[in-house]
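PT: before anyone asks, these are the final sequences, not the draft ones from last week. 231 residues across everything. Please model them as a single complex and drop the result in this thread when it's through.
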Amino acid sequence: DAEITQSPRHKITETGRQVTLACHQTWNHNNMFWYRQDLGHGLRLIHYSYGVHDTNKGEVSDGYSVSRSNTEDLPLTLESAASSQTSVYFCASSKPGLAGGSVNEQFFGPGTRLTVL
Amino acid sequence: GENVEQHPSTLSVQEGDSAVIKCTYSDSASNYFPWYKQELGKRPQLIIDIRSNVGEKKDQRIAVTLNKTAKHFSLHITETQPEDSAVYFCAARAPGGGADGLTFGKGTHLIIQP
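LR: through. Structure below.
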């Protein structure tokens, strides 16, 4: 069955280290997104991509980067991890909307719990 | 950018009663309003969505209403059951700039009392 997966599911790292979180989907969806979830803030958009070689900044992109070299994967990199980046990270994907601005359902991965010490 | 406010943050209802969660949004151009349910330790899952050309949508015990003039939308759950206990998030999508990313409310923790 088609699905969206994230790895690792749990990660503990130290301040200043580079960390990469993986996201892989087998639906062949063009659109992919990264969100972080924090208590009291809900889900906030970090970066998103509409297709190969396309990346865009979201609401809370500082300190994060993404790359899209193929349709299936959108890895999220924390260049120099900070304690403020301790969070649960969710990847999501969706089919592209039709012309006229329509939107399709976003499917979420299982999440990665990241702790920065 | 879009701003979504969600109320209440916690809602406790007796099993069998109805629950209503309300959200307001700021960008009048927003055209898509999904509701996600998230159980403890799990991923958010879409339960119902509504588009700006529709005022109400129903799916069994769940309904969503949209008032574009007032810029608010609500989730209604009737005949609540223990398995409805979860955190519910509303979201809105504003099409400006080509972004499909959603702006979420901060969530409502729904507790169903037996």
